[in-house]
Amino acid sequence: MPTAEHIKQQLRFHNTGPQQVPGVIVMQLHSSWQPDHGTWDHKYRQALVVFNARPEPFECGFPEGGEWYKLHPALAALQDDAMVQLCTADNEGKRLHVSARMAAVFVQER
What we know:
Elements: H1 4-10, E1 11-14, E2 24-30, E3 44-52, E4 58-61, E5 70-71, H2 73-76, H3 82-85, E6 88-90, E7 95-98, E8 102-109
Antiparallel strand pairs: 1-2, 2-3, 3-8, 4-7, 5-8, 6-7
């Protein structure tokens, strides 16, 4: 992102404040709504990254504005990995599941 203003507009952190779950960072990156307004990705509307440093799996609801997600194709290609198999997006229940000590990237395509 070329400017601090773009970062402020397009990047959000969840799992913050007094109710924060220690050891987990949830970061949501929105693609700009059109190519000439900020950083625009032609393929993805948004990416949701969950860093789970906890020794147990983490589950959370979709952040506001999250309609549906899928595991990023690069991670989905590793489906033989037991840790990756546990990283899922439940689009009906609007819940994300991330394995212990795992970073997972979920995306929403355009």
